[in-house]
Amino acid sequence: MEFAFTAEQQMIGETARTWFAEQATSARTRAAMAGDGMDAALWSGFCRELGLSGVALPEHHGGAGLGLVELAIVAEAAGAQVAALPLLGHAAVARAIAAGGSEAQQAHWLPRLIGADTLAAAALDANVAPDGASLTGSAAMVPHGGNAGLFLVSKGNQAWLVPADTGVKAHTPVTMDQTRPLATITLDAVAAEPLADCAAALAAARATGWVVLAAEGLGVAQAALDRTVAYAKDRVQFGRAIGSFQAYKHRLADMMIANEQARSAVYWAACAIDEGSDDASLALHAAKSFAADTAFKCAADMIQLHGGIGFTWEHDAHLFFKRARSLQTLMGSGAWHREQVARIVLGDMA
After folding, report:
1. 92-124, pLDDT tens digit by residue?
2. DSSP single-letter state for residue 45
3. What gap in Å lies between CA 39 and CA 41, rounded to an integer?
4. Which element (helix H / strand E) includes 154?
5. pLDDT recorded at residue 3
6. Which of these, 7, 263, 275, 337, is most buried using a 10 Å CB contact count?
7. pLDDT above 90 covers what percent of the chain?
């Protein structure tokens, strides 16, 4: 597979990176952390001003009609600033509705999701029991579940749309990554509408979620490298910039190599989905595990290579480290994804 960004994709990337660098500042992120973990003004601007909330959704419902490559570009830019946005669940649910929703479900929900009138969250593999047209049970670790107005709830091969105002209760404890709060939602005989094609919806939700997480991880890793390189040029020790010391340069080189490998994995996965490649499943599992681990390694190296200041609350290094750690946990651990890679490659031998 040969891959290079088109002129349009390069423009989307430049626009997204510039916008997030200007808007998703450290001060705004910390303010969101002190509140409910979401920068509502940033999300509104992302959807309504930047117009990228529908980048991978159909044009006839108000989207841009593009694909996961473009969504990955946007998610990478958001990850580079550790933006306090509900992009993960929102994109997964919207793509699920586009892939497996009825015409009525698509017409009702997609314009609302694209326009930021409704915020969506995904509660996949929930512990729920259907009873006619209602659901009872709970789901843990739902990203931005406390902010959502619509939930995609799944169990096994079944999936339902559940509006929050039907009686869904959400509890959001303090978790490591306060820029992406994880809620536990409780459903007590709430109204639930099954999707028309649950299999297609769930496949789209998982693929979208894994690509978004992997791309965010790439953004975290690249930002960790860029910020550390800038610090290495400015910090002087023993009369020299610390970046001139060989051991320091070796660590930076290792980070750069890991970043380039992660970049290849992320955009291989996104491109494979968009093109319907036979390698799509393999690429998704590889990208999610490798990019999340790369983000964690680079964020940890960022803290160490910044020395004492890197361990302080005032420095942003800990924000990247916490986001990277959560990326490793959400939607399957690295060990689980690598096991899926082994099963795909080795088949019954795995």
Report:
1. 999 999 999 999 999 999 999 999 999 999 999
2. I
3. 6
4. strand 150-155
5. 76
6. 337
7. 88
Dihedral sign from CA coordinates of 166, 169, 174, 175: negative
Integer Cα distance of 217 and 299 in angstroms: 10
Sequence spans of domains, the chain: 200-349
With contact defined as beta carbons under 8 Å apart, do 160 and 139 qualify? no
Q: What is the pLDDT of residue 348?
A: 62
**Tokens 């990337």 map to which residue?**
13
Please state at what angle helix 280-305 crosses helix 317-329, rounded to 10 degrees: 150
- Token pair listed for 306: 């910044």
| Band (1; pLDDT cuts 50, 70, 90) | low
Strands 120-123 and 150-155: parallel
Q: Quick check: 218 and 268 in contact, CB under 8 A?
A: no
**Given 1.10.10.10, 1.20.140.10, 2.60.40.10, 3.20.20.70, which CATH number is that of 200-349?**
1.20.140.10
pLDDT in tens, 134-153: 999 999 999 999 999 999 99
Cβ count within 10 A of residue 51: 16
The residues that bridge with 162 in the sheet, in sequence order, are 151
**Would you say 41 and 27 are in contact if contact means Cβ atoms under 8 Å apart?**
no
Per-residue pLDDT of 167-219, as tens digits, reads 999 999 999 999 999 999 999 999 999 999 999 999 999 999 999 999 999 99
Strands in 156-259 per DSSP E: 158-163, 169-171, 182-191, 193-194, 236-237, 240-241
Q: What is the pLDDT of residue 310?
A: 85
Rounded Cα distance between 139 and 126, Å, is: 5
Residue reference for tokens 């009525």:
104
Type of residue found at 312: T
